[in-house]
Amino acid sequence: MIRYHAAWILPISEPPIRDGWVAVDRGRVVAYGALGPAGRHGLADGAREVDLGHVAVLPGLVNAHTHLELSYLRDEVPPSSEFVTWIRAVIAARRQRPDPSGPEIVGAVERALEETVKYGTAVIGDISNTLVSFGPLMRTSLAGVLFYELIRFNTSDPVGVVEEASRRIAALPPTERVRTSLAAHAPYSVAPLVLRAIRQAVDRHPFAPCSIHLSESEEEVEFIRSGAGPWRVLLEEIGSWDPAWVPPGVTPVQFLADSGFLDARVLAVHGVQMTSADLERLAALGTTVVACPRSNGHTGAGAPPIEDFYKSGVRVAVGTDSLASAPDLNVFAEVATMRALAPTVPAAALLDSATRQGARALGFDADYGTIEPGKVARLLAIAIPGSRIDVEEYLVSGVEPDQIRWIDDI
Ligand SMILES: [Zn+2]
Asked: Considering the entire predicted model, what is its pTM?
């Protein structure tokens, strides 16, 4: 057993402990607490004592939404002021490299995974249209869910499309650390009957989460309300428009809630355009909103209403989105952007989102997300300037990669 001493321990499940310790045995947390007045823990159990010094120890972070397979598009898709213009640029860029398992794409996935671990992430929610990231993900120390994402607006066989997808992920055997599930791309790009079939397939697995991009752009809101606008034009251009589709005439959240798609299993990603009524509905359903504000700025979707998220009581997790729309996969940097957009949200709530809420949404909260006895000791030691700081505020204000270490590497 090793007992790590640190200036701060952040269990997340309770307030930070100044001058604390955490004991780890065979990769699991055994106990934690505060040092007594003489700087001692009062335990004589033969544990090796390791003083980490001026660091804050906290659980490994959770990046609840990314697309590793798009990592080769880093710096390739310039920022846009209009979301559909940005989507057009991504479609064009992906068409230039049609082989999804080519060495350039796999190499970029592997580098992105290295970066993910280096930046302090322990659990990942990865969206994939090709499943190319499954092998590389299995070879890392990360836990996570690989979501096989469907984009299909016009199909004569919605059930067959989803059955084929289910067969493909069933061929990838899950482990303790890496699981698979299905995701729908968005309410404007997946037909209502495909959405229904995805939910039915997900419901057959007792603990599988599901994911969808939701209320990301004004163009999405317009399309779901009226069936018109730039998204309709794009669907027609790419031959995916379905003339039998009837516009729901409501907000994207209300449409999916009325369809029975949303509940506590679902990660609703982005939420830039969500109204207060939308957020209250999601809070009541137990759905988790995943904030990716740096991506939203890059794609022209706009700034998400982070303060409204927290005011509504909805569960909030954090995602970087892909390297096509974010500069890096640093969840600390994503959280710092959330802090800048939402100065009144308590720092503790932002840290909870980046750890416990993400782990819970992805179904990994039995092992990750907090420091508690029995959980996996995938713990970070973040260098801090001293113990007399507001440690939570410090951690949400931007942590540089060279401050981040895993305690098992020390
Ligand atoms: Zn995404």
From this structure: 0.97
